[in-house]
Amino acid sequence: MYDILVIGAGPGGYVAAIKAAQLGAKVGLIEKEVVGGICLNHGCIPTKTLLKSAKVFRTVQNAATFGVNVEGTVSADLAKMVDRKNKVVKQLTSGVSFLLKKNKVDVIAGYGEVLSPTKIQVGDKVYETKKIIIATGGSPVLPPIDGVEASYKKGTLVTSRELLNVTKLPAALVIVGGGVIGVEFATVFASLGTKVTIIEMMPTILPMIDEDVTAAYTKSLRALGIDVITSAQVTKVNDKFVTYMLNDVKKTVGADLVLMAVGIRANSKGLEKLDLAMDRANIVTNEYLETSVKGVYAIGDVNGKYMLAHVASHEAIVAVNHALGKDTIPMDYKAVPQAIYGDPEIASVGLTEKEVKAQGIPYKASTFPLAASGKAMADGEKDGFIKLIVSTKYNELLGAHIYAYHATELISELTLGLNLEVTAEELANTIHPHPSLSEIVLEASLGALDKPIHI
Ligand SMILES: Cc1cc2nc3c(=O)[nH]c(=O)nc-3n(C[C@H](O)[C@H](O)[C@H](O)COP(=O)(O)OP(=O)(O)OC[C@H]3O[C@@H](n4cnc5c(N)ncnc54)[C@H](O)[C@@H]3O)c2cc1C
Question: Nearest C-alpha to atom 26 of ligand 1 is from which residue?
Answer without folding.
Answer: 300
